[in-house]
Amino acid sequence: MSEPVGNKVAVLGAGSWGTAFSIVLADAGNEVSIWARREEVAEAINDGHENTDYLPGIELPHAIRSTHDPEEALAGADVVVLAVPSQSLRQNLPTFLPHVQPDAVFVSLMKGVELGTLKRMTEVIEEVGDIRSDRIAVVSGPNLAREIARREPAASVVACADDDVATILQKRMHSQAFRPYTSIDVLGCELGGAYKNVVALCVGMAVGLGFGDNTTASLITRGLAETARLAMRLGANPLTLMGLAGLGDLVATCSSPLSRNRTFGEKLGQGMTVEEIYASTRQVAEGAKSCSSLRALAAKNGVECPIVDSVDEVVQGRMTTSQMMESFIARNPKPEIE
Ligand SMILES: NC(=O)C1=CN([C@@H]2O[C@H](COP(=O)(O)OP(=O)(O)OC[C@H]3O[C@@H](n4cnc5c(N)ncnc54)[C@H](O)[C@@H]3O)[C@@H](O)[C@H]2O)C=CC1
Ligand SMILES: O=C(CO)COP(=O)(O)O
What we know:
It comes from Nocardioides vastitatis. With about 350 residues, the protein is an alpha/beta fold. It has two domains: about 10-185, 3-Layer(aba) Sandwich (Rossmann fold), CATH 3.40.50.720; about 185-330, N-(1-d-carboxylethyl)-l-norvaline Dehydrogenase, domain 2 (Orthogonal Bundle). About 50% of the residues lie in helices and about 10% in strands. 1,4-dihydronicotinamide adenine dinucleotide (NAI) binds near residues 15, 37, 84 and 112.
């Protein structure tokens, strides 16, 4: 990526994170065009400067415009930010790609692993768009959308195989409240982001069952060990998992009632079924799908991942949340560090 000639960013997806991240981008001096799947969301953003469905009560900067037309959103944009649910990325890309500028850089905000292919989101972009990996970045960290939208201070990681691209993107998203660090460990950042959602589901289940801080801290810590085990087997830098896209995001998501994944788990722990929970919310809880893909990815690579295995069993309705907690404690004793 050469130094940008323009300052327009297209954000594809007008959910909570796409909208909150647009505020960061606008604060950092970019002109932002958000593509919204539903026309009424685009109209609310343009007319009332508010995303009434996903971030009610937050006034959006006037540098943010929205459209239902992908061509209009992407016209003149040298940075293309993808913020749709992970499992819908592949089906959405063909709508976007014909309108992307030839030298544009892609940024994935998504935290999931594709069911079936077991690909990370940057791998899906690379494959479907036939795009070089050094033009695809990921942003991941402890970034709960509503807190970012309120401009509460937070840090994150922007990772790209090409360090220069990461540095250019870092400048484009460094605002008064948002501090991005660069990294070249795309794999570590993406796996950290996808995995923490599953651990947050598990922690939520424990909270829903009425357990306290010892239980949740134990799950967070063993969840991090499990994340690092798989990520390192696949080639990630272990220090990435100790950083913002690993431990940082894990702690934020597992601790916050704002987290959709933790809330989803909590409802399971309280006895609701998966179907009842899906019917009660429009927002995505990525871990409820990525538990299956991460489980398969771990199995394929011969990595033991009891938390991901058990969360998947609960989500598939083959195990209760109480049985899951009992099974963790009953596992064969072993050293903490292997
Ligand atoms: N909300 C947050 O705090 C954060 C979310 N993320 C990640 O960002 C990604 C997007 O999440 P959110 O914006 O939070 O989700 P959301 O549930 O708030 O919004 C999802 C958006 O995608 C649209 N959508 C739903 N199904 C679609 C489909 N089949 N095709 C196209 N668009 C569709 C919805 O209309 C909505 O605009 C996820 O991977 C999530 O893990 C990452 C960091 C923070
Ligand atoms: O990724 C997030 C915070 O960094 C948001 O988590 P949830 O998707 O669980 O709300």
